[in-house]
Amino acid sequence: MARPRWIYFKQIFPTKFQASCTKAKIEDNWINGYEVGPLVEIRKLKDERYVVRYTYDE
């Protein structure tokens, strides 16, 4: 099985709450759609900021 390809959201967030709001928006775009939704996760950076990334399937 191939490893997933990750796309990083263009913004770095100072709080986990802000990152989770963006995560929810990305996940909501696929609800009741015809496509399988992406895996979305929040990653913590070394400087205590957060980034959102999601999978890309061809």
Automatic annotation (TrEMBL):
Protein name: Uncharacterized protein
